[in-house]
Amino acid sequence: MGSECECRTARLVQAFVGALTGTGATKGLFITTARFSKGALQFASMQHAIKLVLVDGDQLARLMVAHNVGVSVRHTYEIKGIDRDYFDIGD
């Protein structure tokens, strides 16, 4: 990421926190399909009055798969094992 993009990302998170503070919110969730800059992550970690959660594109994709949101099953695999009871010849 270039420095201009990093500054913009940090400014967006700062603006979001400002908006939360202005409405009296104590929690916020900021989701992006990109990545957060180091400055944005540092700013978020320094917040004490607001619980701020940042979700980047990688985390978002993992959450979507884990909760079956916007995804579909393409293949299903069967794993078989030996049924030992089937081959058990009584005493």
Structural commentary:
By secondary structure, the protein is of the alpha+beta class. It is 43% helix and 11% strand. Strands 1-2 form a two-stranded parallel sheet. The N and C termini lie far apart (71 Å). The longest helix has 21 residues, at 3-23.
- The ordered H/E elements are HEHEH
Distance between the termini: 71 Å
Q: What fraction, in percent, of the residue positions are helical?
A: 40-55%
Unreliable runs, pLDDT <50, ≥5 residues? none
The biggest beta sheet is recorded as: 2 strands, parallel
The average pLDDT value, as a whole number, equals: 90
Entry keywords:
91 residues; alpha+beta; 11% strand; two-stranded parallel ribbon
